[in-house]
Amino acid sequence: MIEKLDKQRGDSRVELLTKCQLEIKGKKYNCLVDNISTTGASVEMAAMDLDHIQVGDTGTLVVLLLSPVTYHCRVVRRSSDQIGVQFVDQ
Questions:
Q1: Alpha-carbon span 52 to 6, nearest angstrom
Q2: Are strands 58-64 and 68-78 parallel, antiparallel or unpaired?
Q3: pLDDT value of residue 72
């Protein structure tokens, strides 16, 4: 794992590749986290799944670390094969 300080976010991001499951609007998507911090994560997804997700959508992200960790999140960025989520209080 590589840790780096992200100047825009003001926290350290840890680069890793691990399985996760994103649930938005009652639908579950299997995807991969490619980096994570205390405030959010970057998630790789299949392009066809991204058609159903918009910036501003809220849901939960379950990241498979040593044990599953669940975060409530909001989509803050979207590209052709990736989204950025910000962790939020429920």
A1: 29
A2: antiparallel
A3: 98
